[in-house]
Amino acid sequence: MRVGADTFTTRVDIAVRGVQMDAPVRRPDGAGPSDDGHVLVDGANAALPRNSNSPYQLRDGRIFLGELDTGLSLQLVKRPQFYELVTADGVPYEKIARLHGADVLATTVVQTCIRYAEDQRCRFCTIEESLRSGATIAAKTPAQLAEVAQAAVALDGVRQMVMTTGTTAGPDRGARNLVRCVRAVLAAVPGLPIQVQVEPPRDLSVLTELHDAGATAIGIHVESLDDEVRRRWMPGKGSVPMAEYETAWDEAVRVFGSNRVSTYLLVGLGEDPDELVAGASRLINRGVYPFVVPLRPMAGTLARRDGVGAPPIELVRYVTERVAALLRDAGMIGADQQAGCAACGACGVLSAAGA
Fold this sequence. Notes:
Mean pLDDT: 94
Structural class: alpha/beta
CATH topology: TIM Barrel
Helix content: 25-40%
CATH superfamily: Aldolase class I
Number of domains: 1
Strand order of the largest sheet: 6-7-8-9-10-11-12
Largest sheet: 7 strands, mixed
C-alpha cells in the first residue's frame, strides 16, 4: 500500500541517513551497493544504514526523530537459526548464503570477478573484500547451496532466494554455473522462487537454460544508463556496450516474461535525474523493472575511499516518486516478481511508493 506523503518523506530520509541501531543481521561488504542493517519497517523488509550520527533513533520498536514519533515501526531481523549450522563438507552455512530482510536467502555463488582490478572495478562494489576477510568462500557448490537453502526454509521461513555471481571470463559470464545451482536448490526445495543475477551473456541461449532450470526471475544490472557515468563508475563493466544490455533484456523478457526481469539503477552516480527517469520509462516499456536504489558507499569501496557519500535526500525522493508513478501506471509491482531485489524491495523505497 502506498504511504502518505509525510511518511514517505521519512522513509526516503531513513533510507539515506539510516537509524541509530545495532542490527543482528547485516552485510558489511560484498557485491551490493550498501552496508546496511536488515529490519522490518511497518512490517516490510528494509535495509537501512546503521548510523550513529543519524537524527533517527530506535526506541521501543518505533522510529523517533528527536522526541517526535515518526509513526513508523521498526523491528530488527533476528539472527537466523541456519547460521549456526555447518555443511556436510565442513563450511559454516553463513559463509554459503546470507539472510537478507526477514525472508530472503542471498548468495554470491562465485565471489571473485574478472573486473576487480582497481582500473576495472565498479567503484561501489566490494565483492572480493568479504572473501579476503574470511566471511565467505570463493565458490559455492550446488550441493552446498541446496543444503543451506533447505535449512533456511525449514528453520527460518525463507520464502525466496537470490543468486548472483562475480563475472567470469567465459561467454556466459558465469550464468551457466547458476543453471546447475538453481537445479540443485529446487531439487531440495521444490517451488522456492529464485532470482538469478548476471551480466549480459554473450551466449543468450543460457537465459533459456536458466528459465528451464526453474529460475523465477532474472536481474541484469546496469546501474546507470549514461555511458559517461558507466565509464567513470564501472570502467570494466561499462565497457560492455549498452546494446548488449538491451539485447539481453529483450531476450530475458521474451523468456521470463514482462516484469520478471529487473535492473538496478543507482541514484547518486551523477546521472541527470530527468534522464534517469526517462531511461527508467524506456525500461518499463521493455517489460524491465528499474529497481531505483540510493547509493550508500560501503567501507572498502573506491567510492568511500574517494570521499563519495550518499546522494541528497531530495534527489532520491524526486527520482523514486517519478519512477514509482511510471511503474504503477504500467501495472508493474516489484512483489509480482516473486523473487529478487525488486520483490524484496529492501534496498530502495519504491515499494513504499506503491511500486
